[in-house]
């Protein structure tokens, strides 16, 4: 390049600009162009994993055991009862050995009867009963109850009475099914289960009524300072009221 050559003549011009014409909206979009993604906040994950209310958090079987004061006793109360019914129902499908299935059901029923009367009833609701024979050969019921100042856990009490009354009804329905299907071989097992379950139901019902009557006698025995006559009147009224409510 010579000195006399102007500087502008040595610079190559840029490519000519392409003029754009027409409407921008009429241009065809590229096939590789992705649609924009709009992120919307949601609480779906939180609703599916977390409870919204206190009742939801304490519902279900896990919530019942968390609220129970004696979860182990409550577990075995339902374990023996459910196991006896389950073995009775499915034993015919699993084995043809009648003696084996009968022995298993009877053992579970006996364990449930002992556990309910001596462990679950005393632990969950503070009640116990047994039959005693005196020197003259007469038998009578003996009831025990805890101090009324130590009330039972409401969950334990509710679940205990549900188990006490629901399972005899289930065994009664199984007895009807056995009679309709002419399963005479299984009727003695169902009758034995009904004897065990109904005995516990009647015993604890009378023990609960006896505990309430003794509580009424202790509370109003003095008539709240009204004297012997006032105490007798109030005690009689309360006893009559308790007797009408609980039998």
What key attributes describe this structure?
247 residues, mainly alpha, two-stranded antiparallel sheet, 2 strands, 62% helix, 6% strand
Secondary-structure map:
Elements: H1 7-10, H2 44-49, H3 54-57, H4 60-67, H5 71-94, H6 98-125, E1 127-133, E2 139-145, H7 154-180, H8 187-220, H9 227-245
Antiparallel strand pairs: 1-2
Membrane topology: Multi-pass membrane protein
Function: Golgi membrane protein involved in vesicular trafficking.
Transmembrane segments: 72-91, 159-180, 186-207
Strand order, main sheet: write it out.
1-2
CA-atom Rg in angstroms: 39 Å
| Helix/sheet category | mainly alpha
Count of DSSP H/I helices: 9
**How many E-type strands?**
2
Largest sheet: 2 strands, antiparallel
Shape: flat
Enumerate the spans where pLDDT stays under 50 for 5 or more consecutive residues. Answer: 39-51, 222-231
| Helix content range | 55-70%
The N- and C-terminal alpha carbons lie at a distance of: 126 Å
> Kindly state the mean pLDDT as a whole number?
75
Tell me what portion of residues adopts beta-strand conformation: 5-15%
One letter per element, helices H and strands E, the order comes to HHHHHHEEHHH
Describe the overall structure.
- It is a multi-pass membrane protein.
- Golgi membrane protein involved in vesicular trafficking.
- By secondary structure, the chain is mainly alpha-helical.
- Helices cover 62% and strands 6% of the residues.
- It contains nine helices and two strands; from the N terminus they run ααααααββααα.
- It has helices at residues 7-10, 44-49, 54-57, 60-67, 71-94, 98-125, 154-180, 187-220, 227-245, and strands spanning 127-133, 139-145.
- The chain has a two-stranded antiparallel sheet.
- A hairpin with a 5-residue loop joins β1 (127-133) and β2.
- It starts with 6 loop residues before the first helix and ends with a helix.
